[in-house]
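REQUEST ID: PR-0412
SUBMITTED BY: lab tech R.K.
PRIORITY: routine
TASK: structure prediction, single protein chain
INPUT:
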Amino acid sequence: MSTPTKPKLRLGVNIDHVATVRNARGSAYPDPLRAALLAEAAGADGITAHLREDRRHIRDADIEALAEGLAVPLNFECAATPEMQAIALRHRPHAVCLVPERREERTTEGGLDVAGDQNRLTMFITPLREAGCRVSMFIGHEPRQIEASARIGAAVVELHTGHYCDLHAEGRFAERDAELAALAKGARFAHSLGLEVHAGHGLTFETVGPIAALPEVRELNIGHFLIGEAIFMGLGPAIAEMRAQMDAARGFS
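STATUS: complete
OUTPUT:
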């Protein structure tokens, strides 16, 4: 057996798109809580759910059910709005991850502009921190965004891996490698400022290894790909395979 060289990574499973399938028919199934419990049983270290302002997938009742029904931590993703702050303070999830949100987007398209909104975000996260929530900023790898996240008092930054994954899918490997190098540099910088480093968005079996290998990264949050693979191989086996890929990248076998 090989000797691990880095701490074992945590895996957060995003169950948003179980709700997307449910909402397509306006029915009560598939149930996001059931998927979350299956993920938990399969070894997920946490569950992520994004309550969007337009409620296109996760709904308020889902957050309530997840907050009450999970044994693993809930990572509540939301925009930095008064409505979402009130919901977070009511449920007091383990973590609150602030993300940018535009109604016309299909999915989160980039990182939050923390540097351009420092004063408001500082005031926004203060009551969340006082309530015991770990506050995370979903950002790009730019140093100014990382510095601003540390300055306002966030505990965590989650680096957006979507562009890296897109470049891989498009076969633009030189650009992909440059983006990976920038993510690695950003992870090192964030760690040097005392921030815990997470990463996520668009990760697949093909792309997860190099991100999982970054020594400063402590957690990956993966959703859409795992829910898609669950159609073909089941949610438990998909999570197990993702976990195996992550562990191999960290030197575990």
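NOTES: The first helix runs from residue 16 to 25.
REVIEWED BY: pending
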